[in-house]
């Protein structure tokens, strides 16, 4: 489980779940879908985009983010954050984010392990043990866990980690000897952030 430990620790830092972690972020859209707009629509879109960072382009419902290991729908109203994203680990923020402070954010990352889909429960117990060791005194309440499936029927392990200044949720989509972790950092308790993370999880399909 060494690879999982390193992975989870990285997520705590990059996703903003460490009390000392700070991010200055700007977003951009990875969607390949495009449409022809009237002159008025174009002017409106440019005005809205100017309020964000220069690379931020709002996504629309149905936009798909493609990776080497799978794909998922980009939540409506959310954009990819180019500054902190890599091909291996994209970060998404709300299109309303103005660049100040640490925003609600969601990251997606692929990892490998020695568990099969049928061993999802064992994988979940190992993750929970690691979280108990990693979070320590930063925890503000109890870590809770649950299990569901994606729309495609793949197992999903969900771990909610309440901290004093934010609420972090890890969603592990379990494959055979691999997983995808959708990491939600909810700063202000926003229901829209929870919904956005659920959209990514529910629509994920393996490549």
Describe the structure.
With 207 residues, this protein is an alpha+beta fold. The chain has a single domain, classed as Mog1/PsbP, alpha/beta/alpha sandwich (Protein Transport Mog1p, Chain A, 3-Layer(aba) Sandwich). The protein has helices at residues 2-14, 39-50, 120-135, 191-203, and strands at 64-66, 70-73, 78-80, 91-94, 105-112, 144-149, 155-162, 167-175, 178-186, 205-206. The chain has a 7-stranded antiparallel beta sheet with strand order 3-4-5-9-8-7-6, with helices on both faces. Strands 1-2-10 form a 3-stranded antiparallel beta sheet. A hairpin with a 4-residue loop joins strand 7 and strand 8. Helix 1 (2-14) crosses helix 3. The longest helix has 16 residues, at 120-135. It is globular and about 45 Å long. Mean pLDDT is 77; it is low at 1-61.
Q: What is the makeup of the main sheet?
A: 7 strands, antiparallel
Range of strand content: 25-35%
Order of helices and strands: HHEEEEEHEEEEHE
Distance between the termini: 24 Å
Give Rg in angstroms: 17 Å
Average pLDDT for all residues: 77
The CATH class, by name, is Alpha Beta
Number of helices: 4
Number of strands: 10
Give helix % range: 25-40%
Based on Cα principal axes, name the global outline.
globular
CATH superfamily heading? Mog1/PsbP, alpha/beta/alpha sandwich
Overall tally of domains = 1
- Provide the spatial order of strands within the biggest beta sheet: 3-4-5-9-8-7-6
CATH fold category name: Protein Transport Mog1p, Chain A
